Amino acid sequence: MTERIEGHGGELALAALRAYGVREMFTLSGGHVFPLYDAAHKTGFPLYDVRHEQSAVFAAEAVAKLQRRPGLAVLTAGPGVTNGISGLTSAYFNASPVLVMGGRAPQFRWGSGSLQEMDHLPLVAPVTKHAETVFSADDIPRAVAAALTTALTPHRGPVFLDFPLEAIFSTGDADLPAGPALAPIEADPEEVAKAAALIAGAQRPVVIAGSDVYAGDAVAALRAAAEALDVPVFTNGMGRGALPPEHPLAFAKARRVALKGADVVVVVGTPLDFRLSFGDFGDATVVHIVDAPSQRATHVQPAVAPAGDLRAILTTLAEYTGDRADHTDWVAQLRTAEDAAKARDAEEMAAETDPIRPARVYGELRKVLARDAITIGDGGDFVSYAGRYLEPAQPGTWLDPGPYGCLGTGMGYAMGARVTHPDRQICVLMGDGAAGFSLMDVESLVRQKLPVVMVVGNNGIWGLEKHPMRAMYGYDVAADLQPELRYDQVVTALGGAGETVAKAADLGPALHRAFDAGVPYLVNVITDPADAYPRSSNLA
After folding, report:
1. Contact 133, 110 (CB under 8 A)
2. What is the pLDDT of residue 532?
3. What angle do CA 247, 253, 256 make, to 5 degrees?
4. Residue 77 backbone phi and psi in degrees, to 5
5. Which residues form the Thiamine pyrophosphate enzyme TPP-binding domain (predicted)?
6. Cβ–Cβ under 8 Å, residues 153 and 182
7. Which of 45, 191, 256, 392 has its Cβ near the most Cβ atoms within 10 Å?
């Protein structure tokens, strides 16, 4: 029997949110959304507030990515919503099921110049799967349920609802939504069979698995398919860790050799974008496996592109019984290249240089990070090294800005990660440029007792801009930051702790202190500004 609910707009919204598995709210205080706070306060619904709305949306996205369920950000009208648009856009590019709820000026006075009166929908519509203004309290549960169903339906993504003052503050009644009921998208069996035959029959196949493999809960199916077909696997995004580093088919360092030599490249759950040479793999045959027809590439023509539930597709690949080639020599060739690259990396990660090279920072981090640590990348040059030197051991442990490349995710992602995993290590890696976007939200972490470790690679420049600009023009402008700035003192002033490290030998002890501190702690590492962007990176 359908349950009938009643209450003010905030209570009706919260009841629907709970039905869809939402368990917390990220926000920055605003009068337009007070009823949502009232509903949360009266029912013990966790509420976390931030110092900039972008951090609220990034925190909601971290929850959505890590837990594979909806994340919620509540933003006040006007500038509250516009401050969150970069977060919405990142969620859109990352296929993260985030719901942003916005306040809105009263409809009965629309056009009269109310405080923060603006129509948000034209701004957010291009970067959401669904955007709607809900004009009555009675309609709020229906709208929440419809928006979250859309957000969770592959290809996943963010949605937006806003509520005029008279709708969210007034009372109403409605049926309580039953919760998500999502029918899986079934791929064309002939396309899946063709993909399986191409992979099995290839002499030198390679699989590249991305974030949608994790989002679609298809990690186990990926491993089964790789093992059954004996195919080497590379990963990016939240696909990282799908196969642990010690797995005989897991590779990270030999991607250039693999893609140069492969005759079939299988890309699963990630777009054929700039991170993957736009799908141009020379003479190799391309198989692109996606979670929805909308994700099929239009700028290249793969040999086959099965679209549907990734777990089902990969399970079918694992069950393939047709003819297959022997991939033993190919896997061994890549393992030789992988081991050689690891040996080179080990030398770089142990380098005793003054100033410190970024590789050494990651060499020391590898010694202290637990296998289930959540690692968050927020930066350009410094974080690109993280993609090269860190190898997540478990799926769902790597967060980065994704293909949109938006800086400022760090503190929001850290908040969402700490809420998700209260007992794990949370490590945020930031360049000194990225630190300027969100470091003030350390205060939010301190106040709400959410300890994380931050490691800043402080080279005093915008590294991804300074070096290329000098190469192009012989000079650079607008590419310098204050040298050796004490970001650790900023964190200390906000109630956390930290220290500056300028000698490689001091890195290890500093990192141990950081992870033992129990408060937000920043290790400010003075790194070599001459170090250029690494030649290759597994970032994404």
Report:
1. no
2. 55
3. 125
4. -65, 160
5. 378-525
6. yes
7. 392
> Tokens 């009938």 appear where?
4
Predicted TM-score (pTM) of this structure? 0.96
Query: Residue 423 is encoded by which pair of tokens?
Result: 């007992």
Helix, strand, or coil (residue 484): coil
Q: In this structure, what token pair is assigned to residue 163?
A: 């509520």
| pLDDT tens per residue, range 296-308 | 999 999 999 999 9
pLDDT in tens, 141-171: 999 999 999 999 999 999 999 999 999 999 9
Whole-number Å distance between alpha carbons of 263 and 273: 20
Neighbouring residues of 365: CB distance < 8 A, sequence distance ≥ 6: 390, 427, 455, 511
Per the CB < 8 A criterion, the answer to whether 235 and 210 are in contact is: yes
What is the bridge-based pairing of β-strands 285-289 and 264-268? parallel
How many angstroms separate the first and last alpha carbons of the chain? 46
Q: Residue 307 in contact with residue 154, Cβ under 8 Å?
A: no
Here the tokens at position 510 are 């500093």
Cβ proximity of 399 and 238 under 8 Å: yes
Give the separation between CA 81 and CA 520, rounded to whole angstroms: 28
Got the DSSP string for 57-78?
HHHHHHHHHHHSS-EEEEE-TT
Q: How far is CA 530 from CA 192, 364, 458, 459, 464, in A?
A: 48, 20, 12, 8, 12
- Is the distance from CB of 289 to CB of 268 less than 8 angstroms? yes
* β partners of residue 131: 160
